[in-house]
Design a protein that fits this description.
The complex is a heterodimer of chains A (214) and B (275). Chain A is of the alpha/beta class and 214 residues long. Helix content of chain A is 30%, strand content 27%. Chain A has six helices and ten strands, in the order βββαββαβαααβαβββ. In chain A, helix 3 (94-100) packs parallel to helix 5 (138-151) and helix 5 (138-151) packs parallel to helix 6. The longest helix of chain A is centred in the C-terminal third of the chain and has 16 residues, at 168-183. In chain B, helix 2 (37-57) packs antiparallel against helix 5 (113-121). Chain B has 275 residues and is mainly α. Chain B is built from twelve helices and no strands. Classes of the chains: A alpha/beta (214), B mainly alpha (275). Chain A binds chain B through residues 46, 49-51, 75-76, 78-80, 82, 86, 88-93, 95-97, 99-105, 130-132, 135, 148, 152, and chain B through 32-33, 151-152, 154-155, 157-159, 161-168, 209, 212-218.
Chain lengths: 214, 275
């Protein structure tokens, strides 16, 4: 699946946050967008996911305009891992979080279970399934979120500040895991203010500055 | 005390209370996590307006409360989605209008003080056979829907944006949950009164959320705690001649207190061991 933006403009209130932004993420590619805090990285991801209205320009997922009725049917092909994971104190197990990835699709119970366990296995998190999601460490939560995206059947993963709150070992583990997923054909788009994250990998790197990509 | 159960209104009341106390906490869990508390406040006052309307026009109170609450939810939805009004502001405006309408109706139509009090504290033993049947059907529907849409509801509870991006029609589910909440408040008002209905809806879910580690365990524990509150509240009401709404609220407060203390004991013990 290819993700493209063409002269994208997105406003937050009356302020333009993204200005005339164009880029493309071909199938199986990985891209890291770096930028300082508040430069519009999260706004960009939320726009790509159809969570924010586009003021001008367009975003296409495999030639389907984001927000169109055709896109609604395949929107689960693009998944996101929000910054620091979702964190609230309400009880939910890691297994339930991963199963949520399949919530938008009608599946037989057995098939759903197979998908969920396969996703957990892919991120080496089978042993975490019964744990309360909110009591997991930052790295464990990241892996569960990735498993949720895989269970969703996503072909493009959008990662918002994936390194935040992770120690060196967890970062290394996350980096390897993403590399593996990328080899399996999953496209990756990460936004971060961290200059070191993924710097030793062959990801295409762009910088978001004043609402424009450099 | 047991011979009181030979009276049909008492037995019917017990049956309705047990059914409600085991199922309403499911809706309570949604209200807490989806932050529907402003809606719950609006609906609570809507129940008062519906009750007053029923008394003034000589209509069955449950029916008028259901109609008013459903209308309020639809109106709030219209104001927030079509009128782009803030949800808190819309529910606040409707809540105040409901309360004003209820007091104007109660005084203008010459509704008796006793009947008005029943709206606030509930009157379980006045539940008619029709109302009991309606409550049973509603509770069954609530359980069936919570099972059928379990995954989609869990997704919404986890995170609305994640739910949307995973393909869930989050707006439709959210709207359905609001309508179910409106009906739950209407039935709960009949059982425990407008002011005490939280004892049946929210308290069990709150108490369960202290120790549950998954959505499944939360639902199970909420229902079980709801049942405990319902049964003990009923026994207390018969033993002390208190209104069931009041005794249920009192036992609910005790159960919530115990849950919080019990959840803190292991934490305090592990802290002590660490030291």
């Amino acid at each position: 699946m290819e993700l493209t933006t063409h002269h994208l403009v997105v406003h937050q209130g009356k302020t333009p946050v993204l200005k005339n932004l164009s880029f493309s993420l071909p199938a199986g590619h990985s891209l890291v967008i770096r930028g300082t805090n508040g430069c519009g990285k999260t706004t960009l991801l939320r726009s790509l996911l159809g969570l924010l209205p586009v003021s001008h320009g367009e975003i296409r997922l495999n030639h389907m305009i984001i927000g169109s009725p055709e896109w609604l049917k395949i929107r689960h092909k693009m998944a996101w891992v929000p910054q620091e994971g979702i964190l609230h104190r309400f009880p939910i197990s890691a297994l339930e979080v991963v199963t949520i990835g399949t919530a938008g699709r009608k599946l037989r119970a057995k098939h759903r279970k197979d998908i969920v366990f396969s996703a957990l296995e892919s991120v080496e998190a089978l042993h975490l399934q019964q744990r309360c999601y909110h009591r997991l460490s930052g790295g464990e939560r990241q892996r569960i979120s990735l498993a949720r995206c895989l269970a969703q059947g996503a072909e493009i993963l959008l990662l918002d500040e994936p390194g935040t709150g992770l120690d060196q070992e967890s970062r290394h583990r996350l980096s390897n895991l993403l590399l593996q997923l990328n080899k399996q054909g999953v496209s990756l788009l990460a936004v971060t203010h961290d200059q070191e994250l993924f710097s030793n990998q062959s990801w295409e790197t762009r910088v978001l500055k004043e609402g424009q990509l450099c | 005390m047991l011979n009181l159960l030979s009276y049909p209104p008492v037995l019917r009341g017990l049956f309705v209370l047990l059914t409600a106390s085991a199922t309403f906490p499911i809706a309570g869990a949604w209200v807490i996590r989806l932050n529907l508390l402003p809606y719950r406040f609006m609906l609570m006052h809507g129940a008062l307006l519906g009750g007053a309307l029923g008394l003034a026009l000589n209509l069955p109170p449950l029916l008028s409360v259901i109609v008013v609450n459903l209308l309020l939810v639809l109106l709030a939805d219209l104001l927030t989605n079509q009128g782009h009004m803030d949800g808190g502001m819309a529910t606040m405006a409707l809540m105040i209008a409901s309360l004003g309408g209820a007091s104007a109706l109660a005084s203008g139509a010459g509704v008796s003080a006793q009947e008005t009090t029943n709206l606030l504290w509930g009157d379980l033993f006045a539940v008619s056979p029709t109302e009991a049947t309606m409550a049973l059907i509603f509770c069954l529907g609530l359980v069936l829907y919570s099972q059928k849409a379990d995954l989609q509801i869990s997704a919404l509870i986890f995170d609305q944006d994640v739910a949307y991006t995973s393909g869930v029609n989050s707006q439709r589910i959210h709207r359905t949950l609001l309508l179910i909440t409106a009906l739950t408040v209407a039935f709960a008002m009949r059982v425990a009164g407008a002011l005490l209905l939280d004892a049946l809806m929210l308290v069990p879910a709150l108490a369960a959320s202290v120790s549950a580690h998954s959505m499944k365990s939360l639902y199970r524990k909420s229902s079980l705690i709801g049942l405990i509150i319902g049964v003990s509240g009923f026994i207390l009401a018969l033993a002390t001649n208190l209104p069931v709404g009041a005794s249920t609220a009192l036992t609910g407060a005790v159960v919530l207190g115990i849950s919080i203390i019990m959840a803190r004991i292991p934490r305090a013990r592990s802290h002590h061991e660490e030291l």
